[in-house]
Amino acid sequence: MGLYTEHIEPRLVNLACSSRVIAPYRSKLVPRASGEVLEIGFGSGLNLPHYDAARVSRLHLLEPNAPIRRLAESRLRQSALPNAILDAGAEAVPLPDDSIDTVLVTFTYCTVPDLAGALREARRVLKPGGRLLFAEHGLAPDAGVARWQHRIQPVWGRLAGGCHLTRDIPSALRAAGFDLPELEQGYAERAPRFAGYISTGAAA
Ligand SMILES: C[S@@+](CC[C@H](N)C(=O)[O-])C[C@H]1O[C@@H](n2cnc3c(N)ncnc32)[C@H](O)[C@@H]1O
Questions:
Q1: Region at 41 (left for phi over 0; alpha for psi -120 to 50; beta for the rest)
Q2: For the chain, the helix, strand and coil percentages under 3-state DSSP, each to the nearest 5
Q3: What's the confidence (pLDDT) of residue 7?
Q4: Paired strand residues for 186
Q5: Which CATH number describes the domain made up of 3-203?
């Protein structure tokens, strides 16, 4: 691993994800997680303070990137929630079928290399009646913004850890067989539009 991927990229990801622009999405979504919870791509652990300890039995925290996982250590020490770290990718979750009540994913499905595979795995581990809570940025509905997203994607992807600006996450969820009983979409306030079109809700 080079200097950039070992030291610089994890800190840039942590900095970008710590933005005040993103915080309201976390505080609205994360407290809704309950039971056995699988968080996909938990990164530097920025969602940890938002979980409702009274509702969560155990957190399964999946993150394949060791340098980013290290940035979560102090937040993990401060959390009283029982947790298990999973050193794995979303495309091959090391958990049994029908074992999870809530899959939580924030600003990660933009980055996983095989989105369809990751969504198949999320469905596999969810119990019947379980749900997937998500907040993700992606393809904007305005043609002018979408054009810019496609234009800058090649450079952006290399700088931002493989992040895709042009994924339509709700469509990918539906294609994977999820229903979306709750979906809110719009541009985040004070964010550049090319990176700030957010879809958030619950899939079942
Ligand atoms: C922009 S960060 C978001 C981190 C965290 N979810 C948050 O909201 O702060 C994207 C995360 O996806 C993780 N990631 C990349 N590829 C992944 C994969 N195949 N499976 C799971 N997570 C992955 C990255 O390591 C990184 O931690």
A1: left
A2: 35, 25, 40
A3: 86
A4: 198
A5: 3.40.50.150
- Rounded to whole angstroms, the Cα distance separating 84 from 58 reads 8
Render pLDDT for 86-112 as a digit per residue (tens, 0 to 9): 999 999 999 999 999 999 999 999 999
Print the SS3 string covering 54-75: CCEEEEEEECCCHHHHHHCHHH
Enumerate the H helices of the chain as residue ranges.
3, 9-17, 23-29, 66-71, 73-78, 115-125, 143-159, 169-175
Query: Measured in whole angstroms, how far is the alpha carbon of residue 7 from the centre of its chain?
Result: 21
> At a CB cut-off of 8 Å and minimum separation 6, what does 5 contact?
67
Q: Contact at 8 Å (CB) between 86 and 100?
A: no
Q: Tokens 């090319």 identify what position?
A: 194
Mutate to test the pocket of ligand 1, among 13, 48, 108 (most ligand atoms within 8 A of CB): 108
Does the Cβ of 104 fall within 6 Å of ligand 1?
no
Render pLDDT for 134-165 as a digit per residue (tens, 0 to 9): 999 999 999 999 999 999 999 999 988 899 99
